[in-house]
Amino acid sequence: MMERLLGKKVLYLLPGAKNYVEILVIDRCHFTRTGMEAWLNHTDVLSSSLLVSGMNNLILAKEHILQWKPHLVIADLYGFLNDALPEQPINAFFAACRMTPLVLLQSGNMPYRPQYASHAVLSKHTLYMSLHNELKERYITHPLQEAPESATPLLSPQEKKCSRCGRKAQQ
């Protein structure tokens, strides 16, 4: 398996793969988010190369969805319900997800509110095999994207300019 760093994302390419599936995992809990990312990256869940991103901020997640258009979003929104004004970011998040398959994971004692559209609502206590079957059967409907040939630059234009000035001074 070959890895490519893309900003803060890691693209796991299977040998000879040219296409990949992008999955966004959203959860306030660091351990759940990284555990889900690791499980997706290190099992043959979808029989293709994966680009798994994890986020703990709904506003950034909404922007990520609008810009990158992931093939699947897996989210536990329970941690965001305790925010001062939870409705605004949650409504914006669901508006961004309207064309993207969304799997909601329920971790709290609050029942799911059907006012929001999702493809599936699963308990966080769902076995990985059940989640594996759900993902395999239903959710990857978008065409696969081409694997990028080069990574996104990690330096801003100003940082590049400063690094060039430093190199010239050393010469």
The number of helical segments is 5
Q: Care to count the β-strands?
A: 8
Mean pLDDT comes to 73
Principal-axes shape call: globular
Question: Which keywords apply here?
Answer:
171 residues; Rossmann fold; alpha/beta
Q: How are the elements arranged and paired?
A:
Blueprint: E1 2-6, E2 9-13, E3 19-26, H1 30-42, E4 49-55, H2 58-68, E5 72-75, H3 87-96, E6 102-106, E7 120-123, H4 128-139, E8 145-146, H5 157-170
Parallel strand pairs: 3-4, 3-5, 5-6, 6-7
Antiparallel strand pairs: 1-2, 2-4, 3-8
Written overview of the protein:
With 171 residues, this protein is α/β, with parallel strands linked by helices. It has one domain: Response regulator (Rossmann fold). It is built from five helices and eight strands; from the N terminus they run E-E-E-H-E-H-E-H-E-E-H-E-H. It has helices spanning 30-42, 58-68, 87-96, 128-139, 157-170, and strands at residues 2-6, 9-13, 19-26, 49-55, 72-75, 102-106, 120-123, 145-146. Strands 1, 2, 3, 4, 5, 6, 7 and 8 form an eight-stranded mixed β-sheet that branches. Helix 1 links the parallel strand 3 and strand 4. Helix 2 (58-68) runs parallel beside helix 3. The longest helix has 14 residues, at 157-170. The radius of gyration is 18 Å and the shape is globular. The chain starts with a strand and ends with a helix. Residues 1-8 and 142-148 have low confidence and may be disordered. Residues 149-171 are annotated as: Disordered. This is LuxR family transcriptional regulator.
